[in-house]
Amino acid sequence: MRAVTGRSFGHEPARLFGWRRTCFRGRSYPGIRADSAVSTSGTLWHGIDPHAAELLDRFETADYERRTLPVRTARGSEVEADVYVVRTASLHLLSHEPWERARFARESLEAFLRALRR
Fold first, then answer.
1. Sequence-ordered list of residues with C-beta below 8 angstroms from that of 98, at least 6 positions apart, any chain
2. What separation in angstroms does the CA of 40 have from each of 47, 56, 104, 116?
3. How many domains does the chain have?
4. Which domain holds residue 97?
5. What is the pLDDT of residue 78?
6. Nearest-angstrom CA–CA distance, 88 and 76
7. What is the Cα–Cα distance from 77 to 81, expressed in whole angstroms?
8. Could you please report the per-residue DSSP string of 23-87?
9. Residue 55 · residue 4 · CB < 8 Å
10. In this structure, are residues 30 and 24 in contact, taking their beta carbons and an 8 Å threshold?
11. Which of its termini does the chain have fewer beta carbons within 10 Å around, N or C?
12. Residue 35 in contact with residue 91, Cβ under 8 Å?
């Protein structure tokens, strides 16, 4: 978040039901697609202002769209959140391989952050 917006925001774990996170083919970052059989863990960010949202919109490629969807917090509350999901026209770019945060951190995060700073 800081690398894209230049700021920190409060956050907490959350779960998005009915969506699957997989790898994009040939890329280190994930995408999510609708799948009623699963749920996806993630982070719910608090206090995102319009300027930060604009920066995040610019950061995400044309393969994504921002949608408001219900998520469940770790405390069990259901809240509406903006979520970047893969556009229908880009679903063919997703593999069936699950994206793993720990693997990304271990294998790709450093290079990903270097590219962002450029």
1. 21, 22, 23
2. 22, 20, 16, 25
3. 1
4. 2-117
5. 97
6. 30
7. 12
8. EETT-SSEEEEEEEEEEEEEEEE----HHHHHHHHHHS-TTEEEEEEEEEETTS-EEEEEEEEE-
9. yes
10. yes
11. C
12. no
The SS3 of residue 18 is strand
The token pair at 90 is 């880009």
Q: What type of residue sits at position 60?
A: E
- CA dist 93 → 15, 65, 90, 96 (Å): 24, 15, 6, 10
State residue 27 phi and psi, 5-degree precision.
Answer: -130, 160
Q: Rounded distance, CA 47 to CA 103, Å?
A: 28
CATH number at residue 27: 3.10.490.10
End-to-end CA distance of the chain: 16
Which single residue is written with the structure tokens 């059989």?
Answer: 37
Q: Note the pLDDT tens digit of each residue in 72-95.
A: 999 999 999 999 999 999 999 999
Is the separation of the CB atoms in 82 and 15 below 8 Å? no
**Residue ranges in the chain whose pLDDT is less than 70:** none
Give me the pLDDT at residue 117, please: 78
Q: Which pTM value belongs to this model?
A: 0.88
